[in-house]
Amino acid sequence: MPLYEHVFISRQDLSNTQAEGLIEHFTTVLSDNGGKVVEHEYWGVKTMAYKINKNRKGHYAFLRTDAPSAAVQEMERLMRLHDDVMRILTIKVDEHAEGPSVQMQKRDDRGDRPDRGDRPERGDRPDRGDRPDRGDRGDRGDRGGDRGGFGAERRR
Fold first, then answer.
1. Domain-located, residue 155
2. Within a domain: residue 144?
3. By CB neighbour count within 10 A (0-12 exposed, 13-18 middle, 19+ buried), where does 71 fall?
4. CATH number for the domain including 7?
């Protein structure tokens, strides 16, 4: 059967047990339709980049599933109809990664960011004037630093 990863965001005013209950509910939907949840993670309440349905935060949940496409479509249909679920994302993967997801790993355990000692010093960077794509800004005309589009005589 195909392998999928799902992330869904539920409303911020739910309790932790209600948010985890949604995971169990959608796990049951998958198993009733011939699929199974290999692993699930509750990521907790996180702040979103923008408001969704007047909510600034949301409960994040992650599922790794092994299910036929009909079962996934039914689960997504029920997620879209559920009032507590704000957003869903489903991705088909070739194989499931071992261990916890990146969200559950400690920041120190992640290997994706260099240490501060690995970064070059600021002295190693070229000066801004050395870049050939920067002109002398002489193409701006004689505006005298005015950014509003009006002359200084109009402001007085």
1. no
2. no
3. buried
4. 3.30.70.60
Domain count, the chain: 1
Widest distance between CA atoms in the chain: 77
List Cα–Cα distances, 152 to 90, 138, 141, 144, 146, in angstroms.
Answer: 57, 20, 15, 9, 8
CA end-to-end span of the chain, whole Å?
75
pLDDT tier at 61, thresholds 50, 70, 90: very high
| Higher-scoring residue by pLDDT: 133, 57 | 57
Is residue 22 included in any domain, yes or no?
yes
Give the CA distances from residue 75 to residues 10, 28, 33, 102, in Å, rounded to whole numbers and listed in that order.
15, 9, 9, 24
| H or E element that contains 55 | strand 55-66
Domain extent, residue 36, equals 3-93
Contact 101, 44 (CB under 8 A): no
117 within some domain: no
Span of 14-23, 44-53, 121-130 with lowest mean pLDDT = 121-130
**Residue 70 pLDDT class (50, 70, 90 cuts):** very high
155 CB neighbour count, 10 Å cutoff: 8
**Range of lowest pLDDT (89-98, 111-120, 122-131, 145-154):** 145-154
